[in-house]
Amino acid sequence: QVQLVESGGGSVQTGGSLRLSCAASAYTWTYYMAWFRQAPGKEREGVAAISTGGGIDYADSVKGRFTITRDNAKNTLYLQMNSLKPEDTAMYYCAAANVGWARLVAALYKFWGQGTQVTVSS
User: Fold this and answer.
1) Neighbours of 28 (CB within 10 A)
2) Best exposed site among 20, 38, 54, 59 by fewest CB in 10 Å?
């Protein structure tokens, strides 16, 4: 069982930056890790994912603005978000998958955090 706890959300203005962190309760270097988000009235969408080998996927909407990294020694996943836009407003969730091809497919992720809110105002 892996427990995930997100932090770092908040309210910023358009163009601002935030850094999300996800602390895991167990060793996660064998897990595919990802960030998802869900805005009110919308489906959950994949934002960024990183494999155990460092392979990375980004949603087209965040490419060039967001960066996902992982620190296996600290069992922590990060999401650096720059040039934030109002459409980035959502609850952001950290997730872990014990399959090697999870990428941005939410259904393949077994463990989820409670989420951290990001609000971007214009």
Assistant:
1) 24
2) 54
Q: Is the dihedral of CA 47, 51, 54, 56 positive or negative?
A: negative
Confidence of residue 26 (pLDDT cuts 50, 70, 90): confident
Q: How far apart are the first and last CA of the chain?
A: 40
Phi-psi region of 21 (alpha: psi -120 to 50; beta: other; left: phi over 0): beta
Residue 29 is which amino acid?
W
Place of tokens 């309210």: 11
pLDDT at 64: 98
Distance CA 67, CA 78 (A): 8
Nearest C-alpha neighbor of 4 from the set 44, 39, 42, 31: 31
DSSP symbol at 122 = -
